[in-house]
Specification:
Elements: E1 27-36, E2 39-48, E3 51-60, E4 63-70, H1 74-90
Antiparallel strand pairs: 1-2, 2-3, 3-4
């Protein structure tokens, strides 16, 4: 690393002056898991000092991706999900080639 470069936050070496984020205490209010084919979806409703949130984790053979939705957006999220479901039910699947 050159003298004018700063350490990358993505490298293992955090360098001089690195200050890790403090741990945030979260209370789990509810957890639900749905298994769909080879994917597991874990829905976790949590409270922390910054507010309430829904964490949705997709686990595929140990590989995890997570999104976090603040509680203030849950109603919009539900509405969008319901609209997707309505469209999916109303739209026939294309024929499969075989």
């Amino acid at each position: 690393m050159n003298a004018n470069e700063s350490p990358s936050p993505y490298s293992g070496n955090q360098g001089y002056g690195y200050h890790p984020k403090p741990l945030v205490v979260e209370d789990t209010l509810r957890t639900e898991t749905i298994q769909i084919e080879r994917k597991a979806f874990i829905f976790t409703l949590k409270d922390n000092p910054r507010g309430r949130l829904l964490r949705i984790t997709e686990d595929v053979n140990g590989r995890r991706d997570t999104i976090i939705i603040p509680a203030t957006g849950l109603e919009d999220f539900r509405r969008a999900l319901e609209e997707m479901l309505t469209t999916s039910i109303a739209t026939p699947l294309p024929p499969t080639s075989g």
